[in-house]
Amino acid sequence: MVLCFTPDSFPVFDVFHQNRYVIADSNHGFKMLGVGKLVAEEITDGPSALMEPFRLSRFTEGKVHPTSNSRFPWS
User: Fold this and answer.
1) Which of 25, 46, 59, 70 is deepest in the core (most CB within 10 A)?
2) Per-residue confidence (pLDDT) for residue 8, from 0 to 100
3) Which pLDDT score is estimated for 30?
4) What residues make up the domain containing 23?
5) How many domains does the chain have?
6) Could you give the CA distance from residue 44 to residue 54 in angstroms, rounded to a whole number?
7) How far apart are CA 63 and CA 14, in angstroms?
8) Can you tell me the distance from the alpha carbon of 8 to that of 64, in angstroms, rounded to the nearest whole number?
9) Does 34 fall in a domain?
């Protein structure tokens, strides 16, 4: 497992180069269980709208996730 700490504390799911797909958890643990199925579907069927908010490009586009007022960054 790769842990990445992004500026918005959300994971990254994206194509890296032409033949690699990155699933970089942001320390969410059990909340990542359903991601494998979504990634497999995206790899076989093409881009998924559900995965779009988690692309690496969100940082260059300024579309980061909002800061939560909760003590838990994923809520």
Assistant:
1) 25
2) 79
3) 61
4) 12-61
5) 1
6) 18
7) 15
8) 6
9) yes
Within a domain: residue 18?
Answer: yes
pLDDT tens, residue order, the chain (75 aa): 556 677 777 888 999 888 899 888 766 666 677 888 899 999 999 999 989 988 989 988 988 876 666 666 555
Q: Tokens in use for 59?
A: 């940082």
Side chain identity, residue 40: A
For residue 2, being part of any structural domain is answered with no
Structure tokens given for 27? 């320390």
Q: Find tokens 């980061």 and name the residue.
A: 64
Confidence (pLDDT) at 25: 76
Whether 68 is in a domain gets the answer: no
Q: Name the one residue in this structure whose structure tokens are 């300024």.
A: 62
For the stretch 37-72, what's the b/e string if a residue is b when 16 or more beta carbons lie within 10 angstroms of its beta carbon?
eebeebeeeeeeeeeeebbeebeeeeeeeeeeeeee
Separation between Cα atoms, residue 25 and residue 57, nearest integer Å: 16
